Amino acid sequence: MTVEDWAEIRRLHRSEGMAIKAISRELNVSRNAVRRALASDGPPTYSRPPKGSAVDAVEPRIRELLARTPTMPATVIAERLEWPHGLTILKDRVRVLRPYYLPPDPASRTEYDPGHRVQCDLWFPPALLPLGAGQAGSPPVLVMTTGYSRMRWAVMIPSRTAPDLIAGHWQLLQAMGAAPRQLVWDNEGAVGCWRRGKPTLTTEFENFRGSLGIGVHLCRPRDPEAKGLTERNNGYFETSFLPGREFTGPQDFNTQLDDWLARANARHSRRIGCAPIARWAADRDAMIGLPPSPPSLGWTNRVRLPRDYYVRVASNDYSVDPTVVGRFVDVVADLTHVTITCAGTVVGRHQRCWARHQTITDPAHRQAAHRLAHHAAAAREDAELAGHSGTTGVLVERRDLSVYDRAFAVNDTEVA
Question: Are 120 and 340 in contact (CB under 8 A)?
Fold first, then answer.
């Protein structure tokens, strides 16, 4: 009897009220078959007693080998047993028996409270982007995933150095509108590492987390499961975001990524049973507020401006107003701009260059440098002319050389 016959017999009897004889005539089955179908609460299934396997005879020997060496490969076991048959049935039996002899190693399942943790990681997309000046590369993407709501945030940054990494964190936290109570990182060099059995953050990241008032959890080495949420998101980006896309540069990459993330965060997540955006309000409300003033971000430096009126940020040179040559200037570079100030006045501002070893010059700075250099050359010529004429300029006293003769008791007669 098929499942369809069983279901139809029960329908005719329970819904239509047909008698057993009528059902037997209707479906052309025996009355005993109708009685068995009505007496059975589950659909009919086909089963047969399992037959013996050739592995049954050597199973005790397999258990002995696994008891001594739980990780022994099935091919080695076959060699020790002098197994004369195919390896498939032996491997299947070893796969069933091996867990009984291996030490338990369960993966911890972390439960997240709203607003508590955000997992962070760097994703290096397998795609070359034009960076300018004829250069191409694959800059890192900072990925942050909230533990409770599974919301994803990401931005491409110029490098994995601490200034750019912290600037990327601040940009994503501003997009969130709040800060989690703890960031989860692995052993990223710009964040920290485990030393002598203890997690140690870099000075830059200690300052950053202190200004936010949050904690940073460093995972132990070789433990990717500890931040599996963002690890899986990296693979998700490669299979769902990258295919078929072309980018004109990092800014275009971030624009397309933002648009895609808005749609991805609205998709149903099987793990939490809803879309991440549906749980985001509760997650954000449980976070702490951002500080009223931003922390120290990006590349910061204070230098005396040299005569060539350029400052260097991450291998690139940026021009500065040459009128402040010789004075101290403050250089601040974030993910998009490089700003140079002198005594609170902006004396240079440029778009951040993602290429390397480039020189970025403001035409106004070049014109001012030419003008000032011309004036300085003319002033030097005037000073030289004034020195030769003897009418103006600084007069230098001529030393009377006879002073040295008297000092060393030398006279003209002795010399002659």
Answer: no
